[in-house]
Specification:
Largest sheet: none
Radius of gyration: 11 Å
CATH topology: Non-ribosomal Peptide Synthetase Peptidyl Carrier Protein, Chain A
Number of strands: 0
Structural class: mainly alpha
Shape: globular
Number of domains: 1
CATH superfamily: ACP-like
Strand content: under 5%
Distance between the termini: 17 Å
Helix content: 40-55%
Mean pLDDT: 94
Oligomer: single chain
């Protein structure tokens, strides 16, 4: 999998918040793989993604959204246009 499979807006949000290059944002990327992806930045990312896509994640699901592919799947479930 490569970064081309991640929508550019999602890739840019995560790259910016996690302070990594956009090329590093792949569907496989998860919390344990990036030192900067801590609980605070996870919440920042969730809020930025919600704002960008006009969705609201279930607060109980947020701790489970620990990878780019899980975030994408959840956005699709919410009907977001990726």
């Amino acid at each position: 999998m490569n970064s081309q499979q991640v929508p550019s807006s999602l890739r840019d949000i995560l790259a910016d918040i996690l302070e990594i290059s956009p090329e590093q944002v792949t569907p496989d990327l998860s919390i344990g793989m990036v030192e900067s992806w801590d609980s605070f930045r996870h919440l920042q990312a969730i809020l930025a993604i919600e704002g960008e896509y006009g969705v609201q994640f279930d607060p109980q699901r947020i701790p489970e959204l620990t990878s780019v592919s899980l975030l994408q799947t959840e956005l699709e479930k919410k009907g977001a246009t990726l």
